[in-house]
C-alpha cells in the first residue's frame, strides 16, 4: 500500500491541471510576494528644470510655454503668446529664447496668432534695445517668406512685422535687406518690374483677382511701404545719427572716425570669409544700357550691398523708381484707402526726386 501511494504522489507532479476560464493557477505554498507600491512626493518649490524669472517677480516655466507655441490649436497659440508677453523674462538669455522660438510663427495662417506675435515682438524689442537688431537676419528671412507665401492670410499679415523693424531697427534692416524687401513688395502687390505688355496683362489679372480681404490689406501694405521708402531714401531726415557726431567728443575732432561700427558685420559686403564664383563688375555695362555708364540692372541686385545711402538711392533710381511710380499711379485711380496710401508713397518718391535734382 505504501509504495503505490508514493507512486501516485510522484505522478501528480507531472500532471497539468485543467484550469477554468478566468482563473489563474494556484500559487505554491512557498510563494513570496515581492510587489511594492511607490508613492510620489510633491515638492512645488523645487524643480529640476529652471524656471524663468518674469518682470513682475514671479517665475514661469518658459520652456513649457514656448513648446505650446507649436500647438495644433490656433487659439492656444494665441493665448500662449499673450501670456508670454505679460510675463516676459528679465534676463537677456530668456528674451533671446523667446524671439528665436517664436519668429517661425511669422508664417502662421491664423490672424489672431499674427496679432499676438506682432505685439510680443514689439514688446521684446522695447524691453531690450538691440535685441531685434541682433536677430535681424532670421527675422527678415521669415518676413520675406511670408510676403511671398502661397496663403493669402500669411501675405496679408506679413508687413505688420516689417513695420516693427522699420520703427525700432530701421538702419539694420536697410543695410541688410533693402533690395530683397523691394523685390518682395513687387511680388506681394502683384506688380511687375518690367514694362512690357505681357507683364502688364499679368499684373492686371492678378490685381483683379484679389479678394476683399486682400484689397483691405493692400492699404496696410502701402502704408508700411511709405514708411520704408522714407527711411530708405530720406535717411538724413528720418534716422538719428547724432551718436556719430564729432561734437560729442571733445578729445579730438577725428575721434568719431575711430569708433566701433554701429551695425553688426559692417564689412560683410567685402565677403572676406565667403567662397564664391566671381562675377563681372556689378557696375559694368549691359546690352540694354550700353550708352549709360554704370547703370544697374535687376540681375545686379544679388551682388550688391545696400549698407550706404548712396547705393540704395542708385538702386532705387536705376531699377525700382519707374515701376513703382507706374504701379502706384494705377492704384491712385482706384481711390479708397489704398489710393490715399499710394498717393502718399508717390509724394515720398517725389520728395526723393526733388532732393536728387537739388544735389545734382
TrEMBL record:
Region of interest called Disordered, as start-end residue ranges on this chain: 1-32
Predominant location: nucleus
SUPFAM superfamilies named among the record's database cross-references: ARM repeat
Location relative to the cell: Nucleus
Gene3D superfamilies documented for this protein: Leucine-rich Repeat Variant
InterPro entries, per the entry: ARM-like (IPR011989), ARM-type_fold (IPR016024), Ipi1_N (IPR024679)
GO cellular component assignments: nucleus; rixosome complex
Pre-rRNA-processing protein Ipi1 N-terminal domain mapped to chain residues: 131-229
Known partners and oligomeric status: Component of the RIX1 complex, composed of IPI1, RIX1/IPI2 and IPI3 in a 1:2:2 stoichiometry. The complex interacts (via RIX1) with MDN1 (via its hexameric AAA ATPase ring) and the pre-60S ribosome particles.
Known role: Component of the RIX1 complex required for processing of ITS2 sequences from 35S pre-rRNA.
Family: Belongs to the IPI1/TEX10 family.
Protein name: Pre-rRNA-processing protein
Organism of provenance: Pichia sorbitophila (strain ATCC MYA-4447 / BCRC 22081 / CBS 7064 / NBRC 10061 / NRRL Y-12695) (Hybrid yeast)
